[in-house]
Amino acid sequence: MENSGYKVSCIDLKSGGIDPSDANSILSFDDYNQPLLDFLSALPENEQVILVGHSAGGLSVTQASHKFGKRIRLAVYVAATMLKLGYWTPQDVKDGVPDLSGFGDDIYELGFGLGSDQPPTSALIKKEFQRKIIYQISPQEDSTLAAMLLRPGPIQALQTARFTDDDDGVDVVPRVYIRTVHDHVVKPGQQEAMIKRWPPKNVYVLDSDHSPFFSSPFLLFGLIVKAVASVESM
Question: 3-class SS at 184?
């Protein structure tokens, strides 16, 4: 994208990427998402961004849209959880929370930052399941590197994601959804259900697993550019 003239910022949320935080210490969604909110807060008043979120990153995009709607030119959900109010109702959980039970009962490494008698605070898919669940049609070298870098997710924090209609901005942000038709994490049926409940401006389709940045990177880039062009012509 940078080679095509775009200015790109990749933001590590708390306990993700190179952020040093321990996922077991991140207990609220506001804390987890603070790096993104700080980034948007620091933008010049006349500057807007194209905000792209993948998987659970859709929750971060939605919260940012609630709080900083006027600074977001377009929200792009890539195989992402797209719930207007966050996890709230049983239907939200059914549509937006990955159900990997079909792969077995013991596929996660769990962390218990609040004690072994409390609900888990972090989760990581075990290495032997990662390729078949997350990267099944991605190049082997990409999935191998990803497995080396993958960190636990702060599931306690993600479960506290709540947004209200009182927040200003979410309905002024144009949204597009990029579906991934071979997805084992956010399954195609879940993606369709979220799209139907909160229809975006456009829906695009990729013949991809849950990781199109590995399995279909150039097509993913092309769809993001196409989505940007569609709002710039509005």
Answer: coil
Q: Is 210 a catalytic residue?
A: yes
Residue given tokens 């937006």 in the structure block: 96
Whether 208 is catalytic = no
Instruction: Convert the pLDDT of each residue in 47-71 to its tens digit.
Output: 999 999 999 999 999 999 999 999 9
In angstroms, rounded to a whole number, what is the distance separating the alpha carbons of residues 70 and 171? 10
Distance CA 192, CA 203 (A): 10
| Residue-level pLDDT at 171 | 83
The residues, ordered by sequence, that sit 6+ positions from 80 with a Cβ below 8 Å of its Cβ are: 53, 54, 55, 56, 57, 58, 61, 177, 186
Question: Tokens 């898919």 belong to which residue?
Answer: 125
Instruction: For residue 130, give the nearest of 141, 143, 111, 145 by alpha carbon.
Output: 143
112-152 tens-digit pLDDT: 999 999 999 999 999 999 999 999 999 999 999 999 999 99
In whole angstroms, give the CA distance from residue 182 to residue 137.
9
The active-site residue, picked from 54, 66, 184, 210, is: 210
Output the pLDDT for position 49: 96
Determine which one of 92, 95, 183, 209 is catalytic. Answer: 183
Spatial distance between the Cα atoms of 74 and 61, rounded to a whole number of angstroms: 10
Q: Is 230 a catalytic residue?
A: no
